[in-house]
Amino acid sequence: xxxxxxxxxxxxxxxxxxxxxxxxxxxxxxxxxxxxxxxxxxxxxxxxxxxxxxxxxxxxxxxxxxxxxxxxxxxxxxxxxxxxxxxxxxxxxxxxxxxxxxxxxxxxxxxxxxxxxxxxxxxxxxxxxxxxxxxxxxxxxxxxxxxxxxxxxxxxxxxxxxxxxxxxxxxxxxxxxxxxxxxxxxxxxxxxxxxxxxxxxxxxxxxxxxxxxxxxxxxxxxxxxxxxxxxxxxxxxxxxxxxxxxxxx
Amino acid sequence: xxxxxxxxxxxxxxxxxxxxxxxxxxxxxxxxxxxxxxxxxxxxxxxxxxxxxxxxxxxxxxxxxxxxxxxxxxxxxxxxxxxxxxxxxxxxxxxxxxxxxxxxxxxxxxxxxxxxxxxxxxxxxxxxxxxxxxxxxxxxxxxxxxxxxxxxxxxxxxxxxxxxxxxxxxxxxxxxxxxxxxxxxxxxxxxxxxxxxxxxxxxxxxxxxxxxxxxxxxxxxxxxxxxxxxxxxxxxxxxxxxxxxxxxxxxxxxxxxxxxxxxxxxxxxxxxxxxxxxxxxxxxxxxxxxxxxxxxxxxxxxxxxxxxxxxxxxxxxxxxxxxxxxxxxxxxxxxxxxxxxxxxxxxxxxxxxxxxxxxxxxxxxxxxxxxxxxxxxxxxxxxxxxxxxxxxxxxxxxxxxxxxxxxxxxxxxxxxxxxxxxxxxxxxxxxxxxxxxxxxxxxxxxxxxxxxxxxxxxxxxxxxxxxxxxxxxxxxxxxxxxxxxxxxxxxxxxxxxxxxxxxxxxxxxxxxxxxxxxxxxxxxxxxxxxxxxxxxxxxxxxxxxxxxxxxxxxxxxxxxxxxxxxxxxxxxxxxxxxxxxxxxxxxxxxxxxxxxxxxxxxxxxxxxxxxxxxxxxxxxxxxxxxxxxxxxxxxxxxxx
Amino acid sequence: xxxxxxxxxxxxxxxxxxxxxxxxxxxxxxxxxxxxxxxxxxxxxxxxxxxxxxxxxxxxxxxxxxxxxxxxxxxxxxxxxxxxxxxxxxxxxxxxxxxxxxxxxxxxxxxxxxxxxxxxxxxxxxxxxxxxxxxxxxxxxxxxxxxxxxxxxxxxxxxxxxxxxxxxxxxxxxxxxxxxxxxxxxxxxxxxxxxxxxxxxxxxxxxxxxxxxxxxxxxxxxxxxxxxxxxxxxxxxxxxxxxxxx
Lengths: 249, 640, 246
Hints:
The complex is a heterotrimer of chains A (249), B (640) and C (246).
Chain A: H1 28-31, H2 33-58, H3 65-77, H4 87-117, H5 137-156, H6 169-176, H7 182-209, H8 218-244
Helix pairs in contact in A: 2-4, 2-7, 2-8, 5-7, 7-8
Chain B: E1 4-5, H1 22-29, H2 35-38, E2 42-46, H3 50-62, E3 65-69, E4 87-88, H4 100-110, H5 117-136, E5 151-152, E6 162-163, H6 169-187, E7 190-193, E8 196-204, E9 207-215, E10 221-225, E11 228-231, H7 252-259, E12 264-265, E13 270-276, E14 299-303, E15 320-321, H8 323-327, H9 337-349, E16 361-364, H10 366-372, H11 374-392, E17 401-410, E18 413-414, E19 427-429, H12 447-467, H13 477-497, H14 503-518, H15 524-544, H16 556-580, H17 604-607, E20 609-616, E21 619-626
Parallel strand pairs in B: 1-21, 2-3, 2-11, 3-7, 11-19
Antiparallel strand pairs in B: 4-6, 5-6, 8-9, 9-10, 12-18, 12-20, 13-17, 14-15, 14-16, 16-17, 20-21
Chain C: E1 3-9, E2 18-24, H1 33-46, E3 69-70, E4 73-74, E5 96-100, E6 109-111, E7 114-115, H2 118-127, H3 147-157, H4 164-168, H5 175-186, H6 195-208, H7 219-223, H8 231-244
Parallel strand pairs in C: 1-5
Antiparallel strand pairs in C: 1-2, 3-4, 3-5, 6-7
Helix pairs in contact in C: 2-6, 3-5, 5-6, 5-8, 6-8
């Protein structure tokens, strides 16, 4: 008996092999995990450059209050009279705010992706890679954000500063880190060290993300990242510690 | 076990004429399929190793509608991946006198004059294309500083024709084929079913028209139909339980095709590889091969005295027996596999073996380290030494390695003609699964060559000649139903025994029996004993095996039990074939047939033939295919 | 040796799963980890229990089929070793060993320690190949390749697709796997024509499968049985960036 079985198909229920999930990439490049990593790297780099400039500015306090105040003033009057007062600073602020927001957006989005990728946690899990800094990036980032808010309220807007809003920047700085307010200095120290750890992995990670790393450069890149972090930590901690311990009055 | 002799069988597909022109002739005479019709022609390929993976990919490229199956979770895991040494090709890039003819000659001679000249010549001819294909795919073969491909001499060859990718040549070649296959899957020409095991062949109106498979995850029994079926399911070395094969390697696909009418050729030809890590205890689940290349610099020895328990370092030079160098001064440690293996067995039988149970010989690198320096040795063999240390806990830089022969490859398999078609029209068999081009003994670095030659170049041409008559219309429903019922009832039977022994314990016992009675050395007595014992054990298996769980889920015990059941039947045929072939040849050594020095003695007058076994309700029927040698004169091999 | 095993048991994809404790006695230090599990399974079968399902095949560290998280580490703490090559001599007598499957959403558990890794195949399908139909290849010596490039390509090409990188990554990222193939083919002249389209397609497929993003923690390369280096990921990033800036 010849039957009506269609040639080349199967009559029994067949699990057809799982089809590839539809490619859904909201937002193209920025929607991809790699694109988000690039956002992290580029915005991170912008912030690192800012930190370097910020640190150099801070160190002016060692040349006296006037030197520091002049620097603060210059930031606002740069490009005058071609452009109005505070033009450059405003542009910088916008760039920074955009960077912070995008850095956070990418971080949150990658972290959500990660938790979706591992819905069931391990009962036992042991890290095999050295360097705990790599594992506290998200925690570190949140800590730095909290500090940033405090820092702006303290020294930029002067809301929580003993000198108030309408004071000279150098006065705000020196009063802010007065020995009587040692706990402010302590918060500052902890935060800056956190920034240093964040950068030690972050800077290296940016090189890797942007595809500049290879095995011949690994050592150099790691040393660069660590050195840059160290310089920033020392540079940022020098003024407040000098003030708290009375070296600068 | 009774058998009868049937009419002779002939390979009718190999063209006549000068051997150099035969493949060209066949390629031209093979009919072509209209490109527009290829989509309508459906081919099933079972197995995704070098042969199956490359065949499925190539058939897909040609435009056929291909369905591919493998039992692993991905086609990339087929056991071809474990091949270490390399792949032969007659490129003559070294200018050292290699040629297609020389590779052909070496392979016929190495196979101990039990392979077809036409097939072997084609293999040598196609070998050069394989290297081109693999390089174009991005296979990272070893290269020299000038940027050209490096080669080495391997397994006793006197020319340097073996291409390699460190100790992972099989892996790299398989990944090349796998990637080509995945490309076709993406293109929609190949439909891939992983974790599916073929359990029967559908033969309708005398043609192979499909397969019954089990979805190993859900337990569902599925039917798949096609115009031709290609089996590329590898060898059956796991009949010995302990072998260098992967744990999942099995004979089920080819055995069930044999039950459907495909002849099984030369089942007794098994290759025992001389350099494997010895068994360390009863729990041993598999054996690990150490690349044969180690014999290039390592020296094989055992103590002169029996039962010498001193540490190897304490045995002075004059009390060591470098037996290969002593017996075979011309080839020394580089004698072919079968000879090295048997020599190791002999010294161990004399009580001079080393390590647990006295089943091992030393492979010593002391002299190589002294001569070349530790760094040079590390550069050449570092990864192998590491592997050895990982498994044994001993450091081969300080203590000589211990090695012992283990089952590695099976030259026998389903009988195929020059077109690689079995005795069932529409059933093609490629790679290790067919009875192949290696005769009674395969040379090192030739398995990869054959698998890829079959898959990339031979089958895609010859299958077209068969498919030119297709499509073949509807499949006989009764045949399908019968096959499916057979599969289901076998599974039900296995599930219902509920005895007291695990499938593995039966497999171990069968393996030991095969190793003892049908292993490196066979005698009429041992084979008769095995033929008596196997049916008893099989009987006990069907009475007393225990399979847990259900058939409708992932059930690794059930999978194992089904495979062991087929191994029993195969083991019986192997022993019968070994018993009937009273000569010694290649991997088949009959103790009764040896010369004064204890070397294998062929009997060309009575056994210059392929033994192709047919399975009938009245017992096995032997069909002989006479072998004729026009080009290579039959001589007794000598490596002294 | 006597051991206590805490093994993840899950009868199927819909089962919630749980850790189950077993005691295994008379384990030889020369056994491989999988042989130790064989011993447990033989006993479970005779007791009428379902044996622990786990994937394995070649048992010589090359097929990539085996893999479990042993005491919190993919393939166990022995470096550059697959589960099948791990031997019991590296464990203390009386030790407790936790055994879990790879954990990642794109690797759903099939049963016990068996997971479905077909996502890896689909990443390769997206572009992990050189398009060269059989028979169309030029002579192998027509394109010389610098030895350094061939060797580096080989290092990346040794990936066995076991999935340990995904299992170890805190983000469940498949970057090392994907990058290994991209790097292998990127370093060879044969891979150049499709280089950028390949990187783009494979990375996008990796995302589509639901793997996490890479945060350069290096956990993957630390557990990789073949030691695939981290700079493969930098290569992938570079190719992906170039592909997207065109």
